[in-house]
User: What shape does this take?
Amino acid sequence: MKLLIMFLAIQRVVSFLFISLVIIGITGCEDDAQQTSQFEEQQPNYAIVKPVPQNLQQGMPETKPVEMLSVADPTPPEQWLLSLYQLNPDIEPARDKGYYRNLLTIIQTSVHEQPRVIANRTVQITRQLQEMGIEANEDQILEDFAEHFQTVSGRYVYGELCANYSNLRQQKLTHKQAMQKLFELL
Assistant: This one.
């Protein structure tokens, strides 16, 4: 008899615990549903961007020149620089990829960056200076960096040198003065 009473008591406790766990589980699910709906309400709404209608596309440029040579782009940096050069009205017809490959190789021996990064930084700094109304030419920058690197020893961070060159140009120094000052400080 004692065993039966003890069994019934244990059964009541187990039933009570089971019912409690079911209630806790159900109320917990409701909290998750509330939290999920609150999260969904906090997400911003985005407008769908529609393409420019055909009648408004007149006057838009056919292609936009590439501002940076991405890592995924298989175009060699010397080919990209040559294509940018060929956009100029007065070009030397004899200039080829070898010209840029030679400049990038000379510069690469004195800096930590690869030719793709050197080309990108040079074009980037040129565009930034031009947007500020300062005359800049990526070919001249590459030529002068290659020339000056042959007179110094050590390895440098090309991006840092370009930033310093830009700062000097913004101080109203000419290209030649900025290059001379930059390499005096090395």
Observations:
- The chain has seven helices and no strands.
